[in-house]
Amino acid sequence: MGSTVNILVEDYQSIRYTAFSELLPLLAVGTTPLLKVDKISQQIFTNNLTIDNTITFSTPFATFTSTASASFEVRSPSRIQVQFKEGSFQPPKIKSNISLPENVDIFGQNVNLSPVQQSLNPLQEVVANLAGVISGQAPLKVPIPGERSSSWLLVTYLDKDLRISRGDGGLFVLAKEGSPLLDQ
């Protein structure tokens, strides 16, 4: 079983492309002003046969991370059966220094945020204190019930930098953490 699991690559992976319809709205949200998708990634733990799919969003005020955790069973050298167990939402990481862009484009109109930034500057100390309080909170965990919690993943290509997989939800192209593909 060890060699069949190795095809999955245990290292942290960052998504470079997907045709998974449920991720597309999340990617679209990242194109809105002041909200950005920082990373969509997957980490496979072969020692306990689990997977964490993680997405991180950021705003000028905070960073938000959620994870869907699953267990998996090896079905062939390139295919696994996945059972999602729970989702978790980390407490937001409030940034101690709020820094808005000077201008944003909202529905084709350029909006100057300099006056807003100036009004936020006196609040920086309050924000820093709030960040300390929130960061110590436990994540919110939510079970993932129902028939949509079961899935499969078929690895169709794998090398030292790239993994291409298909699942019942679509196509996934992931680059290995540290790969030069992430710099492109």
UniProtKB/TrEMBL annotation:
InterPro entries: PAP, PAP/fibrillin_dom. It comes from the Eukaryota. The keyword Plastid applies. Keywords: Chloroplast, Plastid, Transit peptide. It is found in: Plastid. Residues 16-175 form the Plastid lipid-associated protein/fibrillin conserved domain. The keyword ATP-binding does not apply. Pfam families: PAP_fibrillin (PF04755). GO terms for cellular component: plastid. This is Plastid lipid-associated protein/fibrillin conserved domain-containing protein. It comes from Artemisia annua (Sweet wormwood). The lineage of its organism: Eukaryota, Viridiplantae, Streptophyta, Embryophyta, Tracheophyta.
